Amino acid sequence: MNDKEDKEVATLETKVEVLENGPLLVYGTLKVTDKDGNSENKSKTTAFCRCGASGNKPYCDGSHISAGFEG
Ligand code: FES
Q1: How much is the pTM?
Q2: Residue 7, class by beta-carbon neighbours within 10 Å (0-12 exposed, 13-18 middle, 19+ buried)?
């Protein structure tokens, strides 16, 4: 992480919550960069997939329910 990224992280207030058998919820303002290097800003609540079944990774699309994800 470079100095600019350190400062960005230092100014963010975030809260992370693991939902049983579901996604990882991140509350706060985020900059999300996908595997192809594309970035987007997210605010309020962002749900990240933990089950691996989402068709919209890295985000949860509700597929954990039909996948029977436990964890
Ligand atoms: S956790 Fe919801 S689709 Fe993976």
Answers
A1: 0.81
A2: exposed
Give the number of domains in the chain. Answer: 1
Ligand 1 centroid to 20 CA: how many Å?
A: 11
Q: For position 2, what pLDDT does the model report?
A: 62
Burial class (CB in 10 A: 0-12, 13-18, 19+), 24: middle
Over residues 15-71, the pLDDT tens digits come to: 999 999 999 999 999 999 998 999 999 989 999 999 999 999 999 999 999 999 999
Q: From CA 13, how far away is CA 16, in angstroms rounded?
A: 10
What ligand 1 atom has the least distance to the C-alpha of 50? Answer: 1
Domain limits at 59? Answer: 3-67
